[in-house]
Write a structure and sequence with these properties.
The chain is α/β, with parallel strands linked by helices and 392 residues long. It contains 12 helices and 15 strands. The relative contact order is 0.12.
């Protein structure tokens, strides 16, 4: 597995890695050795300009040829074999089975869009004029799909394959006839480079203009701002935190030309537990909520972060306390695990400590203690009044 640590710009690897950054091995809790470049302003501009040049021909490529291109990308990703799984596991701390499943999902997404192209899903709809229609003649109407132009895509931290370099945003843009400039997530740059190399192989095999895809590496946050404000970028796909997403949206709103921002941001995903369900299935619901909360070490965007239930103790019932007891037992049994990055781990532990100092908030249970670099799950309880009046 040979990594260059460089950006992939229109078919060529380039960039200065001497003063770059390294990824972190979440499994071994230590920095990795490969240096990755921080893309320069010139390199970002070059990637976007080459993508814009490629747009003219790529957008006019027959749907059948775009379908072959997408399927070839999937084949080349599978051809990476265990190398891809090994580096993705190291950079994220996610288990091999999870990465293998995500790889299958990624290839499946590419094939899905290829199937849509083969079925002529993106063909226009033409309704000819009917001059004799009463009470008024019907005009000629036509509905069509036009590719927007260069699309910028930002890789997600928690899905290094399915929502990153060749993920759903990239697949949909390429299917629609739009070149992609991908900003790799700095937490898994090696994974991003390997997938980018698979896309490059597909570009060569399908004889497509190399400008149709570029990979931008870097920890410099100015890179993201430069990408979303560039006048040749016509749409942005982003999966990440609410804070960063809102910053990028604000910058996009300042552009002279408005463009769509397809953002999937973080969510607390509240769950409302109705009284009758609490009475009938307290144990099952508690166990299922704990299991769902801790998928991917609690780092799924669908993680149910808040559970709302009615305390029926004052009515002489015990359903709520029964639910809490089952949830505490399930949470206490959870094994500590590594987070995607040391920064996420540090933030999580700091917030757990802070919440224990808030009046009216009780720590009900924590998972098992692990190594210093691992995180323990935590279950807190508060009442509605405290929740409404305490922003934290």
């Amino acid at each position: 597995m040979n990594l260059t640590g460089k950006n992939l710009i229109a078919g060529e690897f380039s960039g200065d890695t001497q003063h770059g950054f390294v990824a972190f091995n979440a499994q071994e809790n230590q920095p990795m050795t490969t240096l990755f470049a921080n893309a320069s302003e010139l390199e970002v501009n070059s990637a976007i300009a080459r993508a814009d040049e490629a747009f003219v021909n790529y957008s006019q490529l027959p749907a059948s040829e775009r379908a072959v291109f997408l399927r070839t990308i999937g084949e080349q990703i599978l051809a990476l074999g265990d190398d891809l799984v090994t580096i993705a596991c190291a950079e994220t701390g996610l288990p091999a089975a999870r990465i293998q499943g995500e790889r299958g999902r990624t290839v499946g997404q590419l094939n899905l869009f290829a199937d849509l192209l083969d079925k002529q899903e993106y063909q226009g709809v033409i309704e000819h004029a009917i001059s004799e229609r009463q009470p008024l003649p019907k005009p000629d109407t036509r509905l069509g799909y036009l590719p927007l132009g260069v699309v910028a895509v930002f890789g997600a931290s928690n899905f290094p394959l399915a929502f990153s370099t060749a993920g759903g945003d990239t697949a949909s843009a390429l299917a629609a006839g739009c070149p992609v400039v991908m900003k790799a997530h700095a937490a898994h740059p090696g994974t991003a480079e390997l997938v980018a190399s698979a896309i490059l192989n597909a570009i060569k095999l399908c004889k497509i203009d190399g400008g149709v895809f570029s990979l931008i590496q870097g920890k410099n946050y100015d890179i993201s701002s430069q990408i979303v404000t560039h006048p040749l970028i016509k749409a942005v796909g982003f999966t990440g935190s609410e804070r960063v997403g809102m910053i990028l949206q604000a910058q996009i709103n300042q552009r002279p030309e408005p463009i769509p921002f397809y953002g999937e941001l973080g969510s607390l995903n509240p769950q409302f537990i109705l009284a009758n369900k609490l009475e009938e299935q307290a144990d099952d619901i508690a166990q299922q909520l704990v299991a769902s909360t801790l998928m991917g070490q609690g780092q799924f965007c669908t993680s149910p972060g808040i559970w709302l239930a009615i305390d029926d103790s004052e009515n002489g019932q015990n359903n709520y306390q029964h639910f809490i007891k089952a949830a505490k037992e399930a949470m206490s049994a959870q094994i500590a695990g590594v987070m995607l990055t040391p920064g996420i781990c540090k933030t999580y532990n700091r917030q757990v400590a802070q919440w224990q100092q808030i009046s009216g908030v009780n720590l009900l249970a924590q998972g098992q203690q692990g190594e210093d670099f691992q995180c323990r799950s935590a279950l807190f309880e508060t009442d509605l009044t405290t929740f409404i009046n305490t922003p934290e």
